[in-house]
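Lay summary

Proteins are chains of building blocks that fold into shapes. Our project writes down both the chain and a compact code for its shape. Here are two examples, one after the other.
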Amino acid sequence: GRFGGAFEFEPSTVKQYEKITVTGMPSTGTTTPFTVSAWVKTTESAERGAIFCGDYGTSICFFLHTDGRVSLNMDDATGYGGTAGTNSVNDGEWHHVAASYSGSTHLVNLYVDGEWITQNTTVYDGNGVGTVSTWYVGYQGRNLSTYHPNNHYFVFDGLIDDLAFWHSKVL
């Protein structure tokens, strides 16, 4: 890993649901500020890859797009919104990625390798995000097979190290 051991996710061609489940964290929702960060290393360019995502249904997901851009999406029962950066990180090198969410003002900031890359206040469709209490590393808990038939759970393909989550906006 970047600083020792890293979680290695190597989904097969049938996209096995390789994941780490995180429970026992305080609930997170629309007005709860949070920050998430991790070191990632991947060359994946065919599928989206979840870094740290909430449970099935209404959800929060920190992931990489197929072109390697980091993104934070917040889904509710009727739709989703998101913020995506411009820097690609799927070059096979280690990159530090982070997102912070302000809570009450709905402001998201994204960072790559310590540099601020973008911000947005339209991160969900306005109906609120359900309470998230179960989280996954390397996996999105919501089945999106209608939109992503080859990887419905955004299984990550690569390495994730030093993942951190705070229930506050620290960046």
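And here is the second example, written the same way.
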Amino acid sequence: ILSDNSYGSSEEDAFRRDFTVNALFYDPVAKKLIDYTGMGLADIRNHVVRAIGVPALRFEEDPVRMLRALKLVAQFNFSLDPATENALFSSLDLFRHAASGRKTLELEKILKSVYSDRHLETFFDYGLLNSFLPELAAVWGSLCTSRTSSNRAAIASAVFMSASMAAMNLS
């Protein structure tokens, strides 16, 4: 993304959002929710993450959207709508090209989250962990033999910290 600061109406802003569930607005004067996409409220009720617009194009514009989609899946026990899921699977290689600073920021949020084990497990299940944290993806299967999420999260954090420290020593 070279330039993402655009101004306009709330409706225009809604259609610049990643997913329908993130494109809802609240009018405090009228005390009502506004769903410009016409699908956001239904998607929340149905536990669905749906890209706004053409999903493959949305992931091409910003590969970090794939990570954010899967965070919603993991945290709220949602599923991807079929078009978004197909686009995610066919766009996974693009994630490697996302800015490392943006990926680091997202990783920091993930590791601070009480849902970090769910996030990482979902990334693994969808194939994103291999592009995001390949060192962790390489050992994730063996971590999952222990079914306690706190154990997996602690081990995952330790593995990641070890990999980070090794990377810093190489530079």
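What can we say about the second shape? Strands lie at 24-27, 32-35, 48-49, 79-80.
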